[in-house]
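Instructor's aside before we start: the two examples that follow are unrelated to each other. I chose them only because their records fit on one page, so don't look for a connection. First example below.
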Amino acid sequence: SNKSSLGLASRGTHLKLGRVTRDKSGLSHVRSHQFYRGLPVYGQMAIFHMNRKGQVESGTVAFLEGLSLDITAQITKDQAEDSARALWKEKNADFPEAKVSNTSLVVYPLLNSYGEKTSEVRLAWVMDVGSLYYAQMPGFKLFIDALDGKILRDRSSVVSLVGTPAQYRVVADCTSYLLGYPTPKTCYYSA
């Protein structure tokens, strides 16, 4: 079946239609996101490029196969957000008040030290964390294990624009220096 050929044979795994766009050449670009037992599988999606007749011309598929996971959280949303605030305060003594937003429960594929997916998944709370009073201060996306409360990963979620439009410096998708981890050399992009 198509479900099996896309790597969605796991019981409880399904696709949810996302955004559909059409470009100037008439191709439609259809995004579908992977879900497992009603929860989004973080970062897993398919993008299909269809011609005017509705036929798929090409596509990119990034799904996790063979999912089997208990989706009962042992750590509550409030507990996860409290941990995020405590972590922010610990690492940002000069700006200790944290804003936590967009918290949701997800199936999260663990990454190795190179940022590549492994075969392990966790039930996790994902949230955006930043300064409550200083919006210009970089924030990050935080992943907290929903079973034991451990930090799984932090990731810069802020695009910071500095200078005039011709001199914008973009900070995106970096390991968060706010948490005391090294920042990769490729963290900054200058237009």
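Example two begins here.
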Amino acid sequence: GYSMSFVNVHWVPYVTDLGFSQMVGAASFSLIGFWSILGVFTLGRISDQRGRRKILAFSYVLRAAGFAVVLISMAIHGSGLRGLELFILLAGVIIVGASWNAVVAITAAYAADRFGVSKLGTIYGSMFAVMPLGSGIGAALGGYLFEFRQSYDLAIISNVVFLAISAFLILSIRERRRSLQDLSVPIIKSE
């Protein structure tokens, strides 16, 4: 929720701070939605074929890389290379978008694989009960860091750092073999 809320709340102001119009900000934000559709199908299919854990971690690394590219657009701001600045900004948002919903879908599949579908509701429900905390922190911290520095650089860097930590934590999970009981779905008898 942290990195998603930063984009949801601060993306258009970030783009306008670079000197682009609000329309460019809104249009570039819409690219996240388009590329998230492609990303969820592509990365979801790859996770079906190659395993969830590594592809989930890759999705977080991909989003971190997208934020790093967005940060480069800030670094070249004011250089007079307006076309390059916009190209890099759009490339970054496309990379962020490619991982956007893939993380959600792969997380659900990984939780089902790891703990069984009979426990998926509790696990996924708990995750989404906690996610608003990260969202609130991401939005608020992004604003605070902007007010403190008059720049979104630290906010974007914090996204890269937290996404990298997330990928590392996912990769640090030890795989375990599942029993057939883990895979079973309880049958509810109707009366």
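The radius of gyration is 19 Å.
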